Amino acid sequence: TKFSSKNVRQTFIDFFEQKHQHLYVPSSPVRPRGDPSLLFVNAGMNQFKPILLGAVDPRSEMARYRRVVNSQKCVRAGGKHNDLDDVGRDIYHHTFFEMMGSWSFGDYFKEEACAMAWSLLTEHYGMSPDRLYVSYFSGDAASGLPADEETRHIWLDIGVQKDRILPFGLQENFWEMGDTGPCGPCSEIHYDHLGGRDASPLVNTGSPEVVELWNLVFMQYNREADGSLRPLPQQSVDTGLGLERLLAVLQDKRSNYDTDLFSPLLDHIHQVSRCGPYGGRVAPGLEGRVDMAYRVVADHVRTLAVCIADGVSPGMSGPELVLRRILRRAVRFSTEVLQAPQGALGSLVPTVVQVLVSLYADLDSINTTSHQELARINQTSHPEPGSSNLPLMAAPVAWSLHRNLGFPLDLLQLILEERGLQVDQVLLDQLLARNHKRGSEPAVASESETHLDVHTLASLKQQGIKHTDQSPKYQYNLH
Ligand code: ATP
Ligand code: MG
Ligand code: MG
Ligand code: MG
């Protein structure tokens, strides 16, 4: 069909390649090459960072890139761009997704970039302009960055209605790759899934009714290690359009999970589960929980398959540790909520591969590697919670680690089990529930909890667990 994932991806590439003289460059693997600032590839521009910085070997092929198009495998489960906590809870964030992108390296700039994006969406994909909103950077006095009035005028000239062009600040409209790296003001295109009303107040609020589709970044600076902004040697354009979100629009669905990238996988999960079929609910309550589990398992198994195929397997530190948490969550949700048998995850891999067929050159070997690896890990993974006789770690100790140091509870459980311990889950649940009731009270540690911290850290140390970093989520090293 016209708007199958395969056709939609190809239409994007053809538009830039054939109509606008861009060179197609294949996706890089999800493991970043020679960039210690990243856990996973989190955007299409990662592999082109040296070009943006003016740091590319002049003899290399990359040095000749002026206009480029691709569809990049991205993982956002750690570091600056981390969507792990939203996955499953909402219907448009994934840990693994495809970012289709177009670039100008010192070639065209804002005007052409906006015109191309608008033409592709409205003429080639046939979207109605009265479902679209665009944003521009409103400036930031503290960092001395001016408002991007130029982009506002470009959208007006293209014919976008005045009240559909919205200003936003640093958070939404100044894109940065990580704590350091290329960055610049951006302009985004958002889609109103309902229509027939003024949806401008919903843009950038996290509402599933108005979803961000495409980000056009005007790369002009590098964020240095000391936090300052250094102007780049040339002005470049870097755009990213989420394939799954675009498909939801074109296939007339409200949710990414109802598109042809997910439906076969959700059907397969249904076959191995002992629950009713996927119902698409995001509400709290039992049914919402089952549907969330469907989304988590579908998302995570895609991420696991793609990462393993690209050489990142669940392991002990860095991206491998992140992947281990993802595996652990997938196993949890599939066995505990969906009641699938142990080992079910591995059996889903062929469906993932079948859906993502266009991403891979060597289908068979990926199928086999991911399948075997997942099957192996899935079999040897943790004992059933509550069913083992492992010694208990006191719940308040786990709780205080979590609350005072932000240590993720599932990671803690994982570490403990591998060291022959488990958390006293019953008591921990009580503590969590009690805290939930206290609700909005500030999370100040009580004296006894603070006391426990010292205690806890000492006991963790004894067990050889080192807590190396307190701020960035999910970046822990085990020694
Ligand atoms: P959001 O605000 O929705 O989290 P973002 O601003 O973080 O998105 P960008 O960094 O601008 O996203 O990435 C470019 C595009 O990639 C987005 O406009 C969106 O279409 C897509 N995208 C980003 N994160 C995800 C994700 N976790 N899952 C699926 N698509 C995503
Ligand atoms: Mg985001
Ligand atoms: Mg955004
Ligand atoms: Mg964005």
Task: Describe how the helices and strands are arranged.
Elements: H1 5-19, E1 23-24, H2 49-53, E2 67-75, E3 96-105, H3 110-124, E4 132-137, H4 149-158, E5 165-168, H5 170-173, E6 174-176, E7 181-192, E8 210-223, E9 229-242, H6 243-250, H7 263-272, H8 286-309, H9 318-337, H10 344-355, H11 363-380, E10 392-393, H12 395-405, H13 409-418, E11 422-423, H14 425-438, H15 447-462
Parallel strand pairs: 1-2, 4-5, 10-11
Antiparallel strand pairs: 2-3, 3-9, 4-7, 6-7, 7-8, 8-9
Helix pairs in contact: 3-4, 7-8, 7-10, 8-9, 8-10, 8-11, 10-11, 12-14, 12-15
Structure description:
The termini are far apart. This protein is globular. Strand 4, helix 4 and strand 5 form a beta-alpha-beta unit. Helix 12 (395-405) packs across helix 14 (425-438) and helix 12 crosses helix 15 (447-462). It folds into three domains: 5-250, BirA Bifunctional Protein, domain 2 (2-Layer Sandwich), CATH 3.30.930.10; 262-380, no CATH class; 392-462, no CATH class. Residues 381-387, 440-453 and 466-479 have low confidence and may be disordered. The strands form two sheets. Strands 1, 2, 3, 4, 5, 6, 7, 8 and 9 form a nine-stranded mixed β-sheet that branches. Strands 10-11 form a two-stranded parallel sheet. With 479 residues, the chain is α/β, with parallel strands linked by helices. Helices cover 40% and strands 16% of the residues. The protein is built from 15 helices and eleven strands. The structure holds adenosine-5'-triphosphate and magnesium ion (MG) (3 copies). One magnesium ion is lined by residues 172, 212.
